[in-house]
Amino acid sequence: MKIVFFDVRENEAEVLKKCCTVREEYRSKCGKECHCQLLPEPLDEKTVLTDDMKQADIISCFTFSRINADILKQFLNLKLIALRCVGFNHIDIDYCKEHNIAVVNSLGYGNVTVAEFAFGLMLDVMRKISRSYINLKNEYPEADSYTGFELKDKNIGIIGTGAIGAEAVRIAKGFGMNVLAYDLYPKEELVQKYDVKYLSLNELLKSADIISLHAPLTKDNFHMINKEKINLMKPTVIIINTARGELIDSKALYEALLENRIFGAGLDVLEAENILTRSDTKLDFDYLTGDYIRQTLINERLLKLHNVVITPHIAYNTYEAQERILNITLDNISSFFAGKIINSVN
Questions:
Q1: Can you give the CATH number for the domain in which 204 is found?
Q2: Which pTM does this prediction carry?
Q3: Running DSSP on this structure, what letter comes out for residue 77?
Q4: How far is CA 190 from the centre of its chain?
Q5: Structural contact between residues 149 and 208, judged by C-beta atoms closer than 8 angstroms
Q6: Per residue in 5-62, pLDDT tens?
Q7: Which residues are catalytic?
Q8: Claim to verify: residue 205 and residue 304 sit in the same structural domain
Q9: 239, containing H or E segment
Q10: How many Å from the N-terminal Cα to the C-terminal Cα in the chain?
């Protein structure tokens, strides 16, 4: 049995070596050895797989990997993909279903972590914290230009009230906000406990002072925030996205921000974000197709706007969440060894 871990950061390596305990458990069950390989690089079209790696029975990766059918075809014995994240839009799920490859995720690791970060972005944009700091550091503070808004009594529209969205609801009530929500499956417990008002998407967009995205990316909600939807919003609205970049049409968002048709945005995720966050990808001209180049130009322009705060997909990144991710991943793998699939997404 061979396991290959991709996207492994330095501080994860020691914890992942706990797989040694899994080896003993597996050996006792079927008499076979289990070999683990830890790699810092993500798994994508740029990855050169060795013959040894192609023999993997299990692979594990993070959100920076992009695993399509052409990549999956190279693995000869693959039985399980253990995701160290919640989202799975970066995996070819259809291929996995067709070839009996189980895909499991790390559900629940970052509910508090991501929700708290969303409010960090929210406060930063509303009170212009980063902008004022950068200006002060560069010795040209403009005190009169930093007037912002309070959160108290504002209408926050939370799109997606799953585990992370529900945590955002709890935090919003602590700030004294009025919570509006949109979800295909409204949760009565949130209505009862926090007085959440569920609306249609269009009604929410028209009424919200702040819009925070906490929905998974699916084929149906790609670019759910587009030019048409932005035109429904208040000119003072703030958009926060800690979910997936593809939920927003970046070009439409850029144009609205540039023309001050909305107040601001806080973005931890972007379309084609790996171009900005990975220097090796920026220099790989074979990788930069027309769509990637177009999207990267839009992202670069978004970075230059004064009413936007952009972070490099770090909402998940706390010590507590990292520990939970790794523990859940190892539990998922141990359960697979025991003949049980938990946290399945396919």
A1: 3.40.50.720
A2: 0.88
A3: S
A4: 23
A5: no
A6: 999 988 788 777 665 555 555 555 544 567 889 999 999 988 999 999 999 999 999 9
A7: 244, 273, 313
A8: yes
A9: strand 238-241
A10: 22
